[in-house]
Amino acid sequence: MLTIWGRLNSHNVKKVVWAAEEIGLEYVRHDVGGRFGMDAAYLARNPNALIPTIEDDGFVLWESNAILRYLAEAYAPHLWPADPRTRAAADKWMDWQFAYADAQREVFLMLVRKPPEAHDPAVIARGIEETGRMMTILEDCLARQPWLTGESFGIADIPMGTYAHTWYALDLARGDYPHLRGWYERLIVRPGYASNVMIPLT
Ligand SMILES: N[C@@H](CCC(=O)N[C@@H](CS)C(=O)NCC(=O)O)C(=O)O
């Protein structure tokens, strides 16, 4: 059985748990990281002291998006296009997500993890501007194709799908992005997304 280590309020852990459920894999998840800490056994599996980490029949892997690619390749080829160009065009959104995460990090930490008296309007304004600018790029893609993976849902939808929920859940001003909204509405009806990604932000 697949083992996943990581607290579920982490974006990077949500991705892996959601993927496992999309694929229909049985898994067990252990809370690690944040207030749960990390013991020596965990650090031996992941020397970065970060979550998530998985173990699949003795195979240990960290880096959330590498885990998604592995799970799709091993268990769900229908979620990962075989054609090299289609795959690369999808894959770029998985790398791009880390740049998006940088744009969202400060405003997320401020609005979710800090008390109101610590809220800095300049940080919030910068977060609104940077995430909005990047969402315009996503909107442009989704105006031309229904999914970031291409014509059908796949693992390239998972990284930004996870961050999109946070963006919609944060109490901040947003522009109108109809294709992004349409994609998000197609995600929220997926059971693995609803139960693992759409949890309260903490
Ligand atoms: N690039 C890594 C980033 C992992 C990462 O930054 N994880 C954060 C949580 S989202 C973490 O481990 N923070 C420390 C902690 O939770 O204790 C990945 O995608 O797996």
UniProtKB/TrEMBL annotation:
The keyword Metal-binding does not apply. Keywords: Transferase. Residues 1-79 form the GST N-terminal domain. Residues 83-202 form the GST C-terminal domain. It comes from the Bacteria. CDD domains: GST_N_2. GO terms for molecular function: transferase activity. Pfam families: GST_C_2, GST_N_2. Gene3D superfamilies: 1.20.1050.10, Glutaredoxin. Belongs to the GST superfamily. This is Glutathione S-transferase family protein. The lineage of its organism: Bacteria, Pseudomonadati, Pseudomonadota, Alphaproteobacteria, Sphingomonadales.
